[in-house]
Design brief:
single chain, alpha+beta, 6-stranded mixed beta sheet, disordered N terminus, nuclease
């Protein structure tokens, strides 16, 4: 009986990641948009959401105006000004919580005066997480309400 219980518990642990990940059906260029049926932990009123715990946080109104415009485009689903907007962000620097490939997507935040895409990005998670970096993935701030 103990062996059967252990086997069943192990099977549940193996199936949980497959049930909670949406990355299996996303393409590398699909934008991460808000979903009203998200199962992500919600932010308690006046508090920090659980996905942002332990991170530096910033409210959207404190971001540069270009970042606020990028967040608005993400909410609308585009159109995006850069070909690479919406591609999968690999999190190779491991500065965001570890997730399966395809969980995170990146969007360019234009930098005034830059001759290229610059270093600023918004990274989105499949459960409506939003992160801002202004130093090309060296540091991140969780964008909270």
């Amino acid at each position: 009986m103990r062996a059967l219980t252990a086997l069943l518990a192990g099977a549940v642990l193996l199936l949980l990641p497959a049930c909670s990940s949406h990355s299996g059906h996303k393409t590398d260029k699909s934008p991460s948009t808000s979903h009203s049926h998200s199962t992500a932990p919600q932010q308690p009123s006046g508090g920090t959401p659980s996905w942002a715990k332990g991170m530096k946080t910033v409210t959207e109104d404190k971001l540069p105006p270009e970042a606020r415009r990028t967040l608005e485009l993400i909410r609308k689903g585009g159109p995006f000004p850069y070909d690479r907007d919406g591609i999968v962000f690999g999190n190779y620097e491991n500065r965001l919580p570890k997730q399966t490939r395809g969980y995170y997507h990146e969007y360019t935040v234009p930098t005034p005066g830059a001759g290229n895409r610059g270093a600023r990005r918004i990274i989105t998670g499949s459960h409506d997480e939003r992160y801002y970096t202004d130093d090309h993935y060296k540091t991140f701030e969780a964008v909270v309400q």
